[in-house]
Amino acid sequence: MEIKKVIxxxxxxxxxxxxxxxxxxxxxxxxxxxxxxxxxVHNSFVTxxxxxxxxxxxxxxxxxxxxxxxxxxxxxxxxxxxxxSDAIKEKAVNKGLKYVDASCVDVLKTQNxxxxxxxxxxxxxxxxxxxHPEAEAVLSISDHIHLxxxxxxxxxxxxxxxxxxxxxxxxMSYLELKDLFELAKSLYPDxxxxxxxxxxxxxxxxxxxxxxxxxxxxxxxxxxxNNTNQLVQIGKNHGIKKVLLIQSFKDIDDDDLKDVxxxxxxxxxxxxxxxxxxxxxxxxxxxxxxxxx
Length: 293
What we know:
293 residues, alpha/beta, Cobalt-precorrin-4 Transmethylase, domain 1, Rossmann fold
């Protein structure tokens, strides 16, 4: 049996930066309460690590960012890597809170592009995942931004503005984008389209499409991570026999290793490197085979 690690996989620069900012903030303010408004990055192991350092994560799918902010009366609030609305920043300041913005630079870049088109009178069609914090931050910018999450929702849009711009959440699948962009062009021939999948997401997706003779692909990551879920779907679309999402080596079922010759291991951009290493080490121990180049 052969075990191979997919390159690239695991942490991206935006995740590394967000975690560094959170840890540095607590280190510089050890006697103040430090909160994260939502999951800093979509990985429960990262949340647990931050908690061990005394950083409090406020995350509730039934509450808005504004409602979560209502729970903080003093201290420092960290905004997650997924971006945040200007209204939430203003509310934090009005409450007398200090804040640290850990938004990914790629997310901010996309937001700035959208704002520029809005200033020029465009309506923006935004391809993203409903209720995802990155999409929510973008939608908060203007009522002239319209969320679509598949071709059906795109068809149902009825926009009269001749000036239309289409872009996307940074962690979507480039395969889905291709079909959606083609449909948008057929519906709105004059639409301006700009693909904004970040390099970390696209490079990890394309690496899966380059795999050969893969019998089993483990995708290490959190079920809440959109880019991780996209890797699972890419693997299935590529025709890999078994594609399994696991959060750690503890999720590995020995039965899945039967009749398998080549195992690949990849991970979402918010997955800690240690979790990937533990999966590979566990597989090596179970099979007696070492990681191959």
